[in-house]
Amino acid sequence: MNRLNVVAALFGVAFGFLFAAAGLNQYDVIHSMLLLENFEPFLIMGSAMGTALPLLWILERRGFQTPIGGPLALTRWQFERKHIQGGVVFGTGWAITGACPGTISTTLGAGSLMGLVLMAGALAGIYAHDAFVQRTTHLNYQELSESFTAAD
Amino acid sequence: MLDLLPVPMPWYIVGPLLGMVVAGLYATINKHFGISGAYVQIVHLAQGLPVEAWRLWLLGGTVGGAALVAILGESPQFGLGYGVLGELLPAGALAVVLFVGGLLIGFGARWAGACTSGHGLSGCATRSPGSLVAVMTFMVTAVGVTLFMHLVTGGRL
Where are the domains of chain B? Predict the structure, then answer.
């Protein structure tokens, strides 16, 4: 267990706590947002971005040195078609289940057995995607992971 | 469970603090916050491929943080509960729907390179052009599909 993992775990706890405390790990909350009846989750997303964006902008401009990860380097992806293609598939699954990956892990933490089903589905989906890409492009693992650098 | 925590906490507390989690992960370990990336590590683990361990620690943390809320506050989804959808569908059908929906979530997030956290929270905060497009796409899609389900179920969903 190194410092990197400990810090990541602590931020994970904070995220999971906040996510669940706002009820974002509940179907009814996400569903009412997507029905455009409940704007609280939009306000959460908006104010989170509104907080993180200027902080990261300032740190980046100052050439901030992080204590564990070296000079700050923000991840940015140039637009590709996959952002739309994957976005449509992801959005459909999100609408059907009222769940995204963050919802799934935090609903599991809340003791939901349905969270296990969602998790199994999501892992199978990732596996299916990679198997499909490997089959159609004949990329090996190394090339595949390079084409999906920093998949978050 | 213990009703010690006033839930749900309001957006003006949760939102800025979530933003500080995203900025804080960058400011300490220089990593882009994202959850689906950790799911990829679980698949890699099962396949015997190299794994980025910090992502698994982050994911484990989110499970623990949510468990804390369930213990200190409340957990309406404990066990088999699944809100309005759970009332509409019997448990077996619900499980099938959630598994298929989960498949789409995993497939789509992997295809788009990230999910609501990696593209949504963090990607927008780093002003990533691809993330902005992905967010607009899955937002519009999800609202459209949800309104469609609302129509075909006669407003029960």
Answer: 11-152
